Amino acid sequence: GVREYYYQTSNSGVLEDNFAAFNRMHGNNAGPTVRYNTRNFLMQVDYEYGHVNYFTQSSRDLDYNSHRVSGLFLYKFSKHLQPYFYNQFFSVGFDRNDNSDFSTYEARAGLKGYFDKWTFDANVGHIGIYDVRPHHASNGMAARARMDYQHNKRLSFYAGGAFETQAQVEQGETEATSAEAGVRYKPIKHFTLDSYLRWIQDDRRLEIQRTLQTGVTGTYQIMRQLNAYAGFNRSERTSDFSLRRDVTINQATVGFHLRW
Question: What's the pTM?
Fold first, then answer.
């Protein structure tokens, strides 16, 4: 299959200090997916190309292209257990400032489980970060787990957590620890409500940042291939470095999701 996603916003990465914040920009992500599925195996390869452009002339140095390639190999060991291996390469290249170019590579081994109303997905692995600053490389571990509970056809819950080494353009690499829980409720046939609560701690070179995020999104299925959605998200970040780096963001989103 082939997918494409276009977006326009004025809030890009303020919590991560990764790219410019509160500058109007738009981007496009597109790419193919190839999947081969048999009784015992699932193999999938994805490629995605992305490009981001800022509207203001003063932010044009932050325009960038990205390439993402990922692969998944899953073995259907039994009805309840499915071990898998996943790897991904992600590269960011800035149009005018190649000193900030960076790339990451990750490899993970995991296990999926299905038991009655419960499902789980847990993995551990390795992340490599290259050229976060010129001629710089670092490595770190990655771990992630999530548990889902399907109470009935209308109501489900999930909870999970993660520890990962991440790349940041302005701050170098950071170690991020997160925990999240959420609820999905379907009051009527074509309408779904999703809500979540997420906590993140970033252990950076010069500071520790803690972020609390909450949000709710309503999705209505107009037809089989077309969904409309609207949501509200709130993020509160605190820093032990300076009170001036504390920030609260309220963000509303509306959009459509088209599949073909």
Answer: 0.81
